[in-house]
Amino acid sequence: MTRSVQVAVLALLVLPALAVAQVAPDLGEIRQKPALAESDRSRIRAFVQETVRAMLTNTDPDRRGMVVARQSLLDEVQTSENRTEAYRQAFAEETLGVLQKMGDQAVSQPARVNFVMTLAGLNLIDSASLLQSALASDPYPASRYWAAKGLAMLAPKIVQSVVPRLEGEIADTVDKVLETPQPTLVLVQLFEALGAFDHERAHDVLAAGIVKVSKGLDASDPVVRQMVSEAIRSLERAYSREVRPDAKKELLFAYAALCAHIMPPAEESPPPAGYATLMSELNASLEKTTGEDVGFESSDPLALQQLSLLEWVERLARTNRIPRRPEMPAAVEAAVKGATSGGGAAAGQAPNTAAGKAGT
User: Are the beta carbons of 264 and 303 closer than 8 angstroms?
Assistant: First the structure.
C-alpha cells in the first residue's frame, strides 16, 4: 500500500478520538426492549436516515461531522451496555437497509470511505454483497481496504452460520480482485478471510493468490511481513481441513513459493526486525503441516536460515508433494545450482548471493 493510502486509512482511524461530541439518538427506552415492534423500528430508521445523510453529505474540511455520524451509528450496534441484543440487531438491520438505499449519495472520497467503514462495522451476513461490490469496484483504495477488512471480520460468522454458497461467492470475488495488484494491507485482510473459510474454492484462491504475490516480496516492509504471517496461518488452517489431494499439493506449492521468495537483506547489519521471526514462522508451520524438519535453526545467520527454507522447496519437489518447482529469483537459482552441484560455497558455508550475506 502506498504511503498516501496508509495515511488516509490511519487518519480515519484517529479522527474519532478528536471528535468533541457524538450524535445522541433520542431512542430512550427502545434500547432496553427484549423485542422491538415495527413502531420501534420506525423510530430507529428515522434516526439512521438522518445520520447517514449527515455522514454522506458532510463537507466540513476537518471531516469531523461525518466521523461523528459514523461513530454514533456503530456505537448503537457495538455497545452492549444499556442495549439489548434485540435492539442492537434491529439497529444493525435498519442501518444496512438505509445504507443500501443511500450509498450513492456520498459526496466525496472520505464520505465513501466512512460509508464502507460503517458497513463493515455492522458485522451482518447480509452486508456481504455490498462489501464484495466495494472490494471489486470502489475507486478508492481506502474503501477497498475497509471492504476487505469487513469481509475478514465477517468470515467466522459466515462459517459458523454454515453458508457455503456465500463462502464460494466471496472466494470468486477475491479471485477476480487478485487479477490486478492490490495494496498489501488489502492482501492481509483477503488472506485472513480466505483462510477462515472451509470452502474448496476459498482454498484454491488462497493458494493461487499467495503464489501470485510471493514474487518480489520486500520483507523489510513491516506490512509485507504482516501479510506473509497471515498467509502462513491461513495456509496451515486450509491444509489441515483440505481433503482433495491435488488441492493439498497446491497449498504446499504456495508454502514453497514463500520459501523461495523470502530473502534476507544483502548488506544490512543488523537486519530489520522481523526477518528472522518470519523465517522461523514459515519453517514452524511447514514442520507442523508435514511432520518433518529440514534442520532449520533460528540461531543461524539469516543466509543459512534461507538455505533451510530452500531445502523445504527441494524436498517437497523431490518427493512429488508439489506439482512443480516454484520459480525462484535468479540469484537464488544460481546459488542452489552451485550448492547442489558442489561448485558453490565450501562445505559449512552459505553462498554469498544477492539473497543474503554469507554467514558461518
Answer: yes
The per-residue pLDDT of the chain, averaged, comes to 87
What average pLDDT score do residues 250-254 get? 98
Secondary structure of the chain in HEC code, one letter for each residue: CCHHHHHHHHHHHHHHHHCCCCCCCCCHHHHHCCCCCHHHHHHHHHHHHHHHHHHHHCCCCCCHHHHHHHHHHHHHHHCCCCCCHHHHHHHHHHHHHHHHHHHHHCCCHHHHHHHHHHHHHHCCHHHHHHHHHHHHHCCCHHHHHHHHHHHHHHHHHHHHCCCHHHHHHHHHHHHHHCCCCCCHHHHHHHHHHHHHCCCHHHHHHHHHHHHHHHCCCCCCCHHHHHHHHHHHHHHHHHHHHCCCHHHHHHHHHHHHHHHHHCCCCCCCCCCCCCHHHHHHHHHHHHHHHHCCCCCCCCCCCHHHHHHHHHHHHHHHHHCCCCCCCCCCCHHHHHHHHHHHHCCCCCCCCCCCECCECCCC
Q: How far apart are CA 17 and CA 239, in angstroms?
A: 41
Q: Residue 43, exposed/middle/buried by CB under 10 A (0-12, 13-18, 19+)?
A: middle
Q: Which phi and psi angles does 271 have, rounded to 5°?
A: -70, 160
**Alpha-carbon dihedral sign for residues 150, 153, 157, 159:** positive
Q: pLDDT exceeding 70 applies to what percent of the chain?
A: 82
Q: Where do the domains of the chain lie?
A: 10-122
Q: pLDDT (tens digit, 9 = 90+) per residue, 268-282?
A: 566 666 777 899 999
